[in-house]
Write a structure and sequence with these properties.
Helices cover about 40% and strands about 10% of the residues. A five-stranded mixed beta sheet has the order 1-3-2-4-5, with helices on both faces.
Length: about 230
């Protein structure tokens, strides 16, 4: 399957949804609009999607639910512009070089390019290896790429999700270590190969995806260190 994000940056719609996902994303938002948790679960049309981050050929994949929205200070979500938008486009199209990967975790000349979320959640792993190892050998994959304050299962598969699932299937066939967080049922259903895959582990707390000894157990943490060094 061709990367659907190749057509994304030529879109004419005003929202940040992929043109082939837009109608279903708006329909979902409308369907939950009267619920008490509608604001938490609403997909943010003004924020860039993040279906994945990093190198799809990495040794380790971390399977997530969807990117979070909201927050304040360093965690505040704002539309991407300039260099940040350029790096975002490269990421979606798998055009990043090693230096590009690293900027998301360490960019002393312009820390606005860093991701406070991914930097914080990989801190111990970076200390045990290097920034380059983490940036180039860990691939973070969201079940779908649209931001919301809280995760909510959507009874529909977006057009762009199919490509994401293909990336995970390829990683399984290549023998990558898979670390699964929340939405385990969704991932196992979307990628059936995972149900019988042996090189797979989970976080102790699937809602807190810190790549640390405490949240992965020392044995799994060391396995990741050995793989990405």
């Amino acid at each position: 399957m061709e990367n659907p994000w190749q057509e994304y940056f030529a879109r004419k719609n005003k929202s940040k949804f992929h043109p082939k996902d837009e109608a279903h994303a708006f329909a979902f938002n409308e369907a939950i609009s009267s619920g008490k948790n509608s604001d938490k679960h609403k997909l943010r049309e003004g924020l860039e999607p993040l279906p994945y981050l990093g190198n799809p050929n990495a040794s380790v994949l971390v399977l997530l639910a969807n990117p979070g929205a909201g927050g304040s200070g360093k965690e505040k979500n704002i539309p991407f512009t300039g260099k940040k938008l350029e790096l975002h486009q490269k990421n979606l199209l798998h055009q990043q070089q090693n230096d590009d990967y690293i900027l998301k975790f360490n960019s002393p000349d312009d820390n606005s390019l860093e991701s406070p979320y991914f930097k914080a959640h990989t801190k111990q792993l970076i200390e045990a290896t290097t920034v380059k190892s983490v940036a180039t050998e860990i691939f973070f994959v969201n079940f779908h790429g649209y931001q919301s304050k809280s995760w909510c299962p959507i009874p529909f598969t977006f057009y762009t999700q199919v490509y994401t699932f293909e990336l995970v299937k390829k990683a399984v066939s290549n023998g990558a270590l898979i670390i699964m967080s929340r939405n385990k049922l969704g991932w196992l259903t979307a990628v059936p190969e995972l149900t019988s895959y042996s090189n797979i582990s989970t976080f102790i707390n699937p809602r807190k995806v810190h790549l640390s000894e405490k949240n992965l157990k020392p044995k799994v943490f060391q396995k990741i260190v050995d793989l990405i060094k």
